[in-house]
Design goal:
Shape: globular
CATH architecture of the largest domain: 3-Layer(aba) Sandwich
Distance between the termini: 45 Å
Largest sheet: 6 strands, mixed
Number of helices: 14
CATH class of the largest domain: Alpha Beta
Helix content: 25-40%
CATH topology of the largest domain: Rossmann fold
Strand content: 15-25%
Structural class: alpha/beta
Number of strands: 13
Number of domains: 2
Order of helices and strands: EEEHEEHEHHHHHEHEHEEHHHEHEEH
Strand order of the largest sheet: 6-7-8-3-9-10
Radius of gyration: 22 Å
């Protein structure tokens, strides 16, 4: 696989799947950080690695871009084995976002974002256009923020610049190691919302490490729950992880309140609706079709009603009972 584009050439190739085949990391002292881990992240999917401290989730992330070399196994981007290519060239095609951002303090915001295009030899005009485009994409006005230095930004703004820098050369894969944990809870929620909006536009293949289950449930298309030694306990959708834990470890890890968390990732669909009453439910609270069951439950509890009207494009399509909503949060085991 040619991981180093020609100078001035296009580094972007959309998104690629990531496949881990029996990867293992054993250190010289005999410590096995990761044992025989296999999983696949489909192209354009966001997979979250989560588990207790010391379970090897950050080690797995760093093996993908070969900041840590695997002892055994294969790591594929698409059909290509990344363990057989030049690691420096590889990293220029993989975006990497870390907890404390790692911006160069002596460089402006624009210069930070331009780092990888500069290494790839992009023309200045093309680099400038790309930098401005990405700063706008992450919600930072290039005219206002481009000439600032990292110390002149808030923590949330620095994190946005870190994401823009990681996306600069249109990488096939984006790796994120606890990217939002260093900011306060309110800023973290806003960053998560902005990141979901951004991912809806760019559809990159993303592997994100977090210790926050709520963040994993909110952001992930699929979640990999790891135990000590990088053992894969379960790899599934957030709703399945919360609703049907595959092992006692997963059941304990997601906690007794997993039913409430499950409501947040379960949409209201036509299948759970009852027919409308004769008056169309004019006096009942309204919730949107496709909205989360958690928000529907909140509307029911706030109004002290037993039913809500579900609407689509402003028109009522059915009735949702509180009993049905609670049933959506039911868990197994």
């Amino acid at each position: 696989m040619d991981v180093t584009p020609e100078a001035g050439g296009d580094a972007g190739h959309g998104a690629a799947s990531i496949t881990l085949e029996g990867i293992r990391k054993r250190y010289p002292d005999g410590t096995e950080a990761v044992r025989e881990l296999s999983l696949e992240v489909k192209a354009g999917e966001l997979a979250v690695l989560i588990g207790p401290s010391g379970c090897g989730k950050s080690t797995v992330l760093r093996m993908i871009n070969r900041l840590i070399e695997p002892t055994d196994g294969r790591i594929l981007l698409g059909d290509d084995d990344v363990t057989r290519v030049d690691p420096v060239g590889l990293r220029r095609r993989i975006g990497y976002v870390i907890q404390n951002v790692g911006l160069f303090p002596h460089q402006t915001v624009s210069a930070n974002v331009a780092t990888v295009p500069g290494l790839l030899g992009w023309p200045r005009d093309r680099t400038r256009r790309r930098v401005d485009e990405l700063l706008e994409l992450v919600g930072l006005d290039p005219a206002q923020f481009g000439r600032r230095y990292p110390h002149e930004l808030s923590g949330g703004q620095r994190q946005r610049v870190g994401v823009a820098r990681a996306l600069a050369a249109d990488p096939v894969v984006l790796l994120m190691d606890e990217p939002f944990s260093a900011v306060d809870p309110i800023v973290r929620t806003r960053l998560q919302e902005e990141f979901l909006r951004l991912q809806a536009e760019v559809r990159k293949t993303i592997v994100l490490v977090t210790h926050d289950l709520d963040e994993a449930v909110r952001l992930g298309d699929r979640i990999a729950v790891l135990s000590q030694g990088g053992h894969l306990e379960q790899y599934d959708t957030p709703a399945a992880i919360l609703g049907t834990p595959a092992s006692p470890f997963v059941r304990e890890f997601v906690g007794a309140d997993r039913g409430i968390r499950r409501l947040a990732v379960t949409p209201v669909t036509r299948e759970v609706l009852d027919p409308l009453p004769a008056d169309g439910g004019a006096e009942l609270p309204a919730v949107p079709l496709g909205g989360s069951a958690y928000d529907a439950l909140g509307a029911l509890l706030t109004s002290a009603a037993e039913h809500a009207v579900v609407t689509e494009d402003g028109q009522p399509v059915g009735l949702l009972s509180r009993e049905r909503v609670l049933g959506l949060g039911a868990t197994v085991g």
